[in-house]
Design brief:
12 strands, 2 domains, globular, binds pyridoxal-5'-phosphate, Aspartate Aminotransferase, domain 2, five-stranded mixed beta sheet, Aspartate Aminotransferase, domain 1
Length: 396
């Protein structure tokens, strides 16, 4: 009898899913077994989803908004998202530029599947968000890392883009504000990057999920510049801005002809959206809300706390985040890679993400989450500094 087999996508993605979170899962296992471990691995907002949003979702469910919905999204949500992005960009953005989707992650994957396939290539600034390899691999396209160097503040340059460029490239997967580095690209940098994409005929797939968590600098997007708008697709969600990742509510905004094409991919995968989530998201998009500013305040304070604490360590060099929920720390003076440092640190009571999960350029780093209260964070930093001290400075 012939053997059963699976499609190559399962092999391409095999090591790109939960394998990436091995330190995190090991920490969870040890915590369950009674170990004292402070977790600084994942970036789950540490404040509650605003209760008025939960109330709206509940009332909407009770009012019967639980049936099948159109694949593009509920009209009320499409309308407020079109208004939001029209206002932000000063351009004529309408409902047909919008696709409502369950989170940025789904939006990234659906847009990527709609843009490229085997034989194409995608430029991805390295370091990158841990799921990006999977997003590209799922499409069958080649993943082309573009070097962002820590010595240059992990900023994306046109020189690095030109050096990485291949003739088959069709998309630049851009993320600013950036996870894991927290770097925020300026309007001028975005302009130069946009011009590069124009020269080479590339899409800009712009992941803007941290738009509302910026501490230094100002948000800039290629979408908001008229000359780049026709080649830019924005993906975002309420996961971070409203501390609501479990609601899985996000969107893609782009040229109407592209949104039309991507809608068929979305419908094949999802068969529509959840009306009660759409109602709650309408409220989140329209009504003023202090969730993001509360988080931003806390994360900014914790960045200062970390910068001050690490200033006392000759071995650990923090990269100051200008946005987001994370800080990267260079551990190379300890003589260990980020991955070995993270594994060793588990035995000293702290779980952090190894840098290489975020690309080759983050190999010497670990990533610390800021989504933990100040006291616990201070305790974690003390443990990290002590562990680094025990390893010694291997570069002197
Ligand atoms: C850069 C980036 N993009 C996308 C996501 C996923 O966001 P969502 O919850 O909207 O799917 C995250 C989550 O941490 C992220 O950091």
């Amino acid at each position: 009898m012939a053997e059963l087999s699976t499609a190559s996508i399962t092999d391409r993605l095999a090591t790109l899913g939960s394998d990436r979170w091995a330190v995190h899962f090991e920490a969870r296992r040890r915590v369950k077994a009674g170990d004292d471990i402070i977790e600084l691995t994942i970036g789950e907002p540490d404040i509650a989803t605003p209760s008025h949003l939960i109330n709206i979702a509940e009332a909407s469910m009770r009012a019967g908004r639980t049936g099948y919905a159109g694949g593009k999204g509920e009209p009320n949500l499409l309308s407020v998202l079109a208004q939001k992005y029209a206002q932000r960009s000063g351009q004529d953005i309408r409902e047909d530029n919008v696709l409502a989707l369950p989170g940025t992650q789904a939006a990234l994957t659906i847009c990527m599947l709609s843009m490229v396939e085997k034989g194409d290539a995608v430029l991805v600034p390295d370091p990158y968000y841990a799921t990006y390899e999977g997003v590209v691999e799922a499409s069958g396209a080649d993943f082309i890392p573009v070097r962002m160097q820590s010595s240059n503040g992990f900023r994306l340059t046109v020189e690095a883009l030109e050096a990485a460029m291949v003739p088959t490239a069709k998309v630049l997967l851009l993320n600013s504000p950036h996870n894991p580095t927290g770097t925020v690209l300026t309007h001028e940098e975005i302009t130069e990057i946009g011009q590069f994409c124009e020269r080479h005929g590339l899409w800009i797939l712009s992941d803007e999920v941290y738009e509302s968590l910026i501490y230094e600098g100002a948000f800039a997007s290629a979408f908001d510049q008229p000359q780049f708008n026709p080649r830019t697709v924005v993906v975002s969600s309420i996961s971070k801005s409203h501390a609501a990742p479990g609601f899985r509510s996000g969107w893609a905004i782009g040229p109407s002809w592209f949104i039309d094409k991507a809608q068929s991919v979305a419908e094949t995968l999802l068969f529509g959206n959840q009306p009660f989530i759409a109602d709650m998201t309408v409220h989140a998009v329209v009504e003023p809300d202090d969730t993001a500013s509360l988080m931003a305040h806390a994360y900014q304070r914790r960045i200062a706390l970390l910068m001050e604490a690490f200033a006392n360590s000759p071995i650990l060099s923090p990269h100051k985040a200008a946005s987001g929920m994370f800080m990267m720390v260079d551990v190379s003076r300890s003589g260990l890679s980020g991955a070995d440092f993270a594994m060793g640190l588990l035995d000293h009571g702290v779980a952090v993400m190894p840098g290489d999960v975020f690309g080759q350029q983050a190999h010497d780093f670990v990533r610390l989450s800021l989504t933990i209260d100040d006291q616990k964070l201070s305790q974690a930093v003390e443990r990290i500094i002590l562990f680094a001290k025990s390893l010694g400075d291997k570069k002197t």
